[in-house]
Specification:
The complex is a heterodimer of chains A (595) and B (193). By secondary structure, chain A is mostly helical. Chain A is built from 34 helices and no strands. Classes of the chains: A mainly alpha (595), B mainly alpha (193).
């Protein structure tokens, strides 16, 4: 019975989810039953559906029994709220109620605004008068030390009251507090507004709940700065406190406002920096997009890089993106370097993401630190297999660990993957040219018992070694030849590659091969192959074919004989003669010797 | 499925006439429903309680306009959903309450050795629920916990019956996919229950 999941299973699973609500149509039910009989995935899904439904029902039921506050407390709080409502004895018509509410609210708001404005204009502190906009010059200015809001009559709960008390503040009075803050800021009473905001500093949740529309305040400040750029220091302070709050109180509406603050360029670096930092603190992708865009636009925004770097791992990821797009900015690179532990973590995540990333190795070479390397190796070790990104970076990591990882991956690879891995092996051996032969030799203990995996690994290793251009190809190929338990065809393959390498590449190769001829266990075919290589033949394939002699044409026979003669001449004695004896059935040379 | 609270129309009618005592009876009866729904929209005890307070406050104000006392339950549910959606995005709404998860677990009272399993399973369920959209979450809750029909769910959610079906179906499907790797744990919970 198959358990294979097919693309149509998604549709069946939807049908299964629907079937929980009630019986399906007969035809649909039969089709579903037929599918379930042959699909293990969907059967499991059906079981999970039932289990989830039952478990969720139990969890929800247990939740219902665990009301957090007792009914009496809950009712007491509710009653206190309801007490504020007008007594209701009979239902009023809906429209009349609405109309009355609108009229009442409008009248109240107008009245409150009027009274507060009057108070604000009448009761300005000397400090406020000094910094008021438009400026009002008092006769004797007082030191600008914001000991607290001076507007004590307007919102007593803010003055001399602990911030904790704000939790119990009536929303309407909080609205009044917001009004005072806004008035103070807009009247350029920067420090006074700041003092008020300090009182509210830890009450983000309260302000958030009340949905303080602080974006309007920021926009007013921006417009005023644009229209009449006066009172730089107080305006700056006002803007800084407003920016500080907009990110935490109104994160959803902050982005367009911050864009507006940054475009055109703010009047002071401090405002620009705070706006960029606030943008980064939003943690939204669109905010990061804008920061990257600002960072790319010109060198005028190096703070964009700093802001991204301060925004956690995701910010650093985007900063890497900025670096790739505008890598002429040294500030970006320096900023990245200054966030070293986090950068390693981010880099490791990106490289190890199992998706092709052509920049992975380059980024690793540029920024990869020890921690990044450790994370990558641990990840590869855990999965016992390298993904595309990790293959790329394994080469960049280099060394024994990377070679081991690549070879282990090759053993399990598909033919398509093998080509990519072979290229990576070549690249690695090229980079590690000094220790390339020893790397190949150490692969002996890695090669698995599984014949297929072994063949995969040897083939890839042979191809990789043959492609090395740094003069180590012959040495690597010889190292492969010396691995134990190579199949004959694989030895032939290695020899074929050796044949194509220039003699100058490995001066010691001839000696090593000649020594192999003396080994009593050498098979005739390998012997012939080695001889052919030694004789500098252009092709070993014919030599390895069976029956060898019959397949050779006259010219090739002559070439082989010449090679063998040269071999014997170069290696006289028992070994050479023994070797020739083993080729008796095959070679013209044996015939001549007999004669 | 929880037993459905079914007070007679008396308290509703009296509350409509402005009887605060009758309204208190309704609050006591329907508070679990409102809190349960609130949990699907808000994280944390404070936020849920606040949403419940706001719901009952609005219900009291709007009670005179209730047309059919028999539909009080769905009407109240609708107010809860509307209030939650209206104030959406202020406190976090994306996941369930971890505090609640630890406070009482489905099977720990009978078999202490299952407490940690129960906690784990509940956390997994909450995480999976958190990944659903808030409408899917609410519809699933109303169906599974309150046992509402799709017509009632549609009334609460302010949508059509077909959409309600789709919400519940999608929620089930996604939860099952999300929790499929933990089937053994769910089986254990089922066996322990």
């Amino acid at each position: 019975m198959s358990t294979g999941h097919t693309s149509s299973c998604t549709a069946w699973q939807e049908t299964l989810a629907r079937s929980v609500d009630g019986p399906l149509a007969a035809r649909e039910r039969r089709a579903l039953e037929a599918h379930l009989e042959c699909c293990g995935d969907c059967r499991s899904f059906a079981e999970t559906l039932g289990l989830v439904e039952q478990f969720a029902a139990r969890v929800f039921a247990s939740e219902a029994e665990e009301a957090w506050t007792d009914d009496d407390t809950f009712l007491a709080v509710l009653s206190s709220r309801l007490d504020g409502l007008p007594r209701r004895t009979s239902p009023l018509p809906y429209l009349v109620t609405i109309a009355a509410a609108i009229l009442l609210t409008g009248g109240l708001v107008a009245l409150v605004l009027h009274v507060l404005e009057e108070k604000a204009s009448r009761e300005r502190s000397p400090y406020v008068a000094e910094h008021a906009w438009p400026p009002v010059r008092p006769s004797e200015p007082t030191p600008a030390t914001p000991a607290g809001p001076s507007n004590t009559e307007s919102e007593p709960f803010l003055v001399g009251t602990e911030p904790e008390d704000l939790d119990r503040v009536d929303p309407l009075r909080l609205y009044g507090a917001r009004y005072v803050v806004e008035k103070a800021l807009l009247s350029a009473h920067g420090l006074e507004g700041e003092a008020l905001l300090t009182a509210l500093r830890d009450k983000t949740a309260v302000l958030r709940r009340e949905r303080w529309p602080i974006e309007h305040l920021v926009l007013k400040l921006v417009d005023r700065n644009a229209d009449e750029p006066r009172h730089l220091s107080t305006d700056e302070r006002a803007m800084l406190v407003a920016l500080h709050w907009i990110g935490s109180v109104r994160p959803r509406g902050a982005l367009p406002v911050l864009k507006r603050v940054l475009e055109p360029e703010p009047r002071t670096p401090a405002v620009r920096r705070e706006a960029l930092m606030t943008l980064a603190r939003l943690g939204q992708e669109r905010a990061f997009d804008h920061l990257v865009e600002l960072g790319r636009r010109s060198d005028a925004y190096p703070e964009a890089a700093a802001a991204l770097a301060a925004a956690g791992d995701r910010g650093l990821e985007r900063l890497l993106e900025l670096y790739e797009g505008a890598n002429t900015l040294p500030t970006v690179r320096n900023t990245l370097e200054n966030h070293r532990p986090a950068l390693d973590r981010v880099l490791a995540r990106r490289i190890g993401s199992w998706t092709p990333d052509p920049r992975a190795a380059e980024l690793y070479r540029l920024f990869g630190g020890q921690q990044c390397r450790d994370v990558l190796l641990a990840e590869a070790e855990r999965k016992r297999r390298l993904g595309e990104g990790l293959v790329t970076v394994a080469v960049a990591i280099g060394g024994v660990e990377a070679f081991d990882l690549l070879l282990e991956t090759v053993e399990k690879s598909s033919p398509r993957e093998r080509e990519r891995l072979t290229a990576s092996l070549t690249e690695l051996l090229e980079l590690e040219r000094e220790q390339a032969p020893s790397l190949v030799r150490r692969s002996a203990h890695l090669l698995k018992d599984d014949p297929l995996e072994r063949i995969n690994a040897i083939d890839a290793l042979t191809s990789a070694a043959a492609r090395i251009e740094s003069g180590q190809a012959s040495a690597c190929l010889l190292a492969i030849l010396e691995l134990s338990d190579l199949a004959v065809i694989q030895k032939a393959n290695v020899l074929l590659h050796l044949l194509n390498r220039p003699r100058s590449e490995a001066p010691g190769l001839d000696g090593a091969l000649t020594r192999r001829l003396a080994e009593p266990t050498l098979s005739p075919i390998e012997f012939a192959g080695v001889v052919t290589v030694l004789a500098g033949r252009s092709s070993v394939e014919d030599v390895l074919a069976k029956p060898l002699w019959k397949t050779l044409d006259d010219s090739r026979r002559r070439r082989l004989v010449r090679g063998l003669e040269e071999t014997v001449a170069a290696q006289p004695g028992v070994a050479g003669l023994t070797a020739l004896d083993r080729l008796i059935p095959l070679t013209e040379a044996s015939r001549r010797r007999t004669e | 499925m929880r037993d459905e609270p079914l007070p007679d129309d008396g308290p509703i009618a009296r509350a409509m006439d402005g009887d605060r005592e009758a309204f208190a009876t309704l609050v006591r009866t329907y508070r679990p429903l409102v809190l349960g729904l609130a949990r699907r929209f808000r994280k944390g005890r404070e936020a849920c309680e606040e949403l419940a307070q706001e719901t009952f406050y609005r219900a009291w104000v709007a009670l005179p306009r209730l047309r059919d006392p028999r539909s009080f339950k769905t009407w109240l549910g609708r107010i809860t959903v509307n209030t939650a959606l209206e104030k959406r995005g202020l406190p976090h709404t994306e996941s369930l309450d971890a505090e609640g998860a630890e406070s009482k677990l489905p099977s720990d009272s009978r078999q202490p050795e299952h407490a940690s399993l129960g906690r784990e399973a509940r956390e997994l369920l909450e995480a999976a629920l958190a990944k659903l959209g808030e409408r899917l979450r609410a519809a699933f809750h109303l169906r599974v916990c309150e046992g509402m029909s799709h017509r009632e769910i549609a009334e609460v959610m302010g949508t059509t019956i077909e959409t309600s079906r789709m919400y519940v179906c999608r929620a089930r499907e996604r939860l099952a996919r999300e929790l499929a790797p933990h089937r053994d744990l769910l089986r254990a919970m089922e066996a322990a229950s």
